[in-house]
Design goal:
Layout: E1 4-10, H1 16-22, H2 26-34, E2 35-39, E3 52-58, E4 61-63, H3 64-76, E5 77-83, H4 85-89, H5 102-112, E6 130-135, E7 145-147, H6 154-167
Parallel strand pairs: 1-2, 1-3, 3-5, 5-7
Antiparallel strand pairs: 4-6
Length: 180
């Protein structure tokens, strides 16, 4: 049996969803027999691969690099899952939205209020330009499934992945549907 090609991606967020993924403990050993991780922040792969079966996307869309990566993910992935409340709703990273223009925020924080070296981070190719409004992943690309939680518990992730691998789809039930 061919193993399912799985990618995990970290956009604008804290990496707590990936920590919960790793908290699946012994289930990871069983999972390793069924999946091949082809891209992840916990693996040293530089380019998002072609022909991915399942991609779990953690974090919100907060900068232009995230926008570009989201479109690569959707084009190369059979199934895309918003993974955690930042990906599902925008959550904490979206708290900057009511503050308005991100360029004005950068000016205020890095220049106007700086104690030393007042300069806004703008190094092309190193610091990606912020998007005008932080968005959940489904506002940028089509998403097939959602795993809520901040972060989602290991049991919630395990249920979603088990259902997907065994039935070809995932439906969370009971307590696993709860946000936060």
């Amino acid at each position: 049996m061919d193993r399912v090609k799985v990618a995990t991606v970290w956009l604008g967020g804290c990496s707590g969803c990936h920590m919960s993924f790793l908290d699946m403990d012994e289930f990871l050993i069983d999972l390793a027999e069924k999946i091949q991780v082809v891209y992840s922040p916990i693996a040293d792969v530089k380019e998002f691969p072609e022909s991915v079966d399942v991609t779990l996307v953690e974090g919100s869309v907060a900068n232009e690099d995230h926008v570009e990566l989201c479109h690569k993910i959707r084009a190369a992935s059979r199934v895309v899952i918003s993974f955690g409340d930042c990906a599902v709703t925008g959550n904490v990273p979206a708290m900057r939205n009511p503050l308005g223009d991100p360029e004005k925020i950068l000016q205020l924080v890095y220049v106007d209020r700086a104690d030393t070296h007042p300069i806004a981070p703008k190094e092309a190719g190193i610091v990606p330009k912020l998007v005008d409004r932080v968005r959940p992943v489904h506002e940028e690309i089509d998403v097939d499934y959602f795993i809520p939680g901040c972060p989602p518990s290991a049991s919630r992730i395990q249920e979603a992945l088990t259902n997907l691998l065994e039935m070809g789809e995932t439906h969370l039930t009971g307590e696993n549907l709860r946000f936060g």
